[in-house]
Amino acid sequence: MCGIVGYVGSREAVPLLMAGLTNLEYRGYDSAGIAAFDGTGLIVQKCVGRLSALGERLKNEPVEGRVGIGHTRWATHGEPSEINSHPHLDCTGRIAVVHNGIIENYQELRAALEAKGHQFISQTDTEVIPHLIEAALSDGAKSFEEALQTALKLARGAYALGILFKDQPDRFYAARHGSPLVVGVGKGEQFIASDVPAIVSQTRDVIYLNDGEIATLTPDGVRVTNLDGQEVKHEIVTVTLRAESVERAGFETFMLKEIHEQPRVLRNLLDKHVSPDSSVLMPGFGLSPQYFKKLNRVMIVSCGTAYHAGMYGKLLLENLTRIAVETDLGSEFRYRDPKIDPGTLIVAVSQSGETADTLASVRMAKSWGCKTLSICNVPGSTLVRVSDAVFFTDAGPEIGVASTKAYTAQLMAFGLLAIHIGLSRGEISEKDAQTLLRDLQAIPDAIHYVLRRKDSIRAIADKHHDGPSSLYLGRRFNYPTALEGALKNKEISYQHAEGYAAGEMKHGPIALINEYLPVVCICTKTRDEVYEKMISNVKEVEARHGKIIAIATDGDTAFDRLAEDIVFVPPTRDEFSPLVNVVALQLLAYYAAQARGTDIDKPRNLAKSVTVE
Ligand code: M6R
């Protein structure tokens, strides 16, 4: 939800700002803008649409300067338009602000400012910030810092801000409350960005600002204070992320690259967490086997794709640990007044670690005295910092808006955790654990097998991408896979798709089935009766002439006459089959989107990181 950048130093600011914004464009692409000081004063350029439009404008009307801020927008308040694009200015044009987040009390602040004579031009919440600072300055604030503190004390909601002040062309300011912001510390130059990948090609030394902090950035250094002006000392952290990991590496899209990275990501996770003698390693984990022994309830909270991972986690944890596990969407959990006792472990799943509803749920649970464990991909993210324990999914930066490698890494994390907890509680034996780990270790190769068959998956997508809708059916461990396959399809191909528990089909969605409806049926073989039940469900679809696309186990002939098309996947243990099956569905969605000509890495209306409610 919006990306912000800032630079001060001895180099030209605009190319650096544009490079940073290019890496942040996945956070929003409704409009883009920059502000910089050139020799004459504060110059703002902004454009509705993609960053490339701003790039074109800057070619014709270049902006020079060694200090600047930039923004790429996902519209919340006010339609995507030039007027609503950031940076926003005060009445005098001396203060420019870029913002990620939402100022929740902006209407009352705006009314009060308008009553004092301030002129607003946009419909955004952000515009109150430069006006509040301007008002504090005219009310006698002794310094710009003091005016900024006064303004921010009045603002309620979430913000990461970059701020330029015309009277101080040697510096810029940044502030954070509830939205992600990282400060990059260079030699004679400083940066800010919404996340590390945007600045990693310039510096790996970073400061993670805390909520309620303001940074003053000059070429000579960074000074951090709280909202009362007291200095706060921060450790500089050196991040390990490589600049190449935020490049497409020859793939046509980030999503395709990330789909192909899955075997490597999962193998690395296995190497990190499985010892040569086949036990699960949890380095620096923070929750002991003794803790898990006594645990009797787990609540998993997450959103979107991460919610589907949570659904899978519930099934696996219940199976291997016999702990009662529930799942909920962050946006529901936080408002439903759940009955949770302090003994419940809250597990938050999030790629970004910045999803507003997931974070709010964790904070709420902490206030009830619950322990929190996060399964997260981004070191230094807010979720990581507020959780008691963290399982890092180590998938590397995920740039494609549609989550792929982060999802399978979340499933793998649940696999490893469930085995670890099951062993700690004595619910599974050492021997069971070794068998489970061996089966988990077969997953990366099984995914390779699916990737090698991508041309046949593309042919199926080419055949079925046209219709208005599709249905995805799965049972038990693959019910979440059906939901995830449908989500992938709708978010990148814009074809309506519905995921359903196959056994529920008779209770409604069967009415949708006719000879035009593609029905993706996940029917890989299982050790129990679920497979046979799934075959019955496929037959019910066939009887109504639905166009069946089966995801089936290699060598299984049961669908030869039932299905119009079959994607074969290698045999895997039931419990871990979702890690493989979902890759077939990712590719199916990918090629459908390609055939429909959508912008796969930046689907319309979406943003990678949902930092507002
Ligand atoms: O960063 P998070 O995992 O917390 O994000 C949660 C969802 O916003 C995210 O999974 C979203 O649903 C993806 N676009 C799905 O591909």
What's the helix and strand layout?
Blueprint: E1 3-8, H1 13-24, E2 31-38, E3 41-48, H2 51-60, E4 67-73, E5 88-89, E6 95-103, H3 106-115, H4 128-138, H5 144-154, E7 157-165, E8 172-177, E9 182-185, E10 190-193, E11 205-208, E12 213-218, E13 221-226, E14 237-238, H6 254-260, H7 262-273, H8 289-294, E15 297-302, H9 304-321, E16 324-329, H10 330-333, E17 345-350, H11 356-367, E18 371-376, H12 382-386, E19 389-392, H13 405-424, H14 430-441, H15 443-452, H16 454-464, E20 469-474, H17 479-493, E21 496-501, E22 518-522, H18 530-543, E23 547-553, E24 565-569, H19 577-596
Parallel strand pairs: 15-16, 15-17, 17-18, 18-19, 20-21, 20-22, 22-23, 23-24
Antiparallel strand pairs: 1-4, 1-10, 2-3, 2-4, 5-6, 6-7, 7-8, 8-12, 9-10, 9-11, 11-14, 12-13
Helix pairs in contact: 3-4, 4-5, 7-13, 7-15, 9-13, 9-17, 13-14, 15-19, 16-19, 17-19
Bound molecules: 5-amino-5-deoxy-1-O-phosphono-D-mannitol.
Task: Give an overview in words.
The protein is an alpha/beta fold and 613 residues long. It folds into 3 domains: 3-245, Aminohydrolase, N-terminal nucleophile (Ntn) domain (Glutamine Phosphoribosylpyrophosphate, subunit 1, domain 1); 248-441, Glucose-6-phosphate isomerase like protein, domain 1 (Rossmann fold, 3-Layer(aba) Sandwich), CATH 3.40.50.10490; 451-600, 3-Layer(aba) Sandwich (Rossmann fold), CATH 3.40.50. It has 19 helices and 24 strands. The strands form 4 sheets. The chain has an 8-stranded antiparallel beta sheet with strand order 3-2-4-1-10-9-11-14, with helices on one face. A 6-stranded antiparallel beta sheet has the order 5-6-7-8-12-13. The radius of gyration is 25 Å and the shape is globular. The N and C termini lie close together (10 Å). The model has no long low-confidence stretch (mean pLDDT 95). It binds 5-amino-5-deoxy-1-O-phosphono-D-mannitol. Residues 303-306, 350-352, 355, 358, 401-403, 491, 606, 609-610 line the site of 5-amino-5-deoxy-1-O-phosphono-D-mannitol.
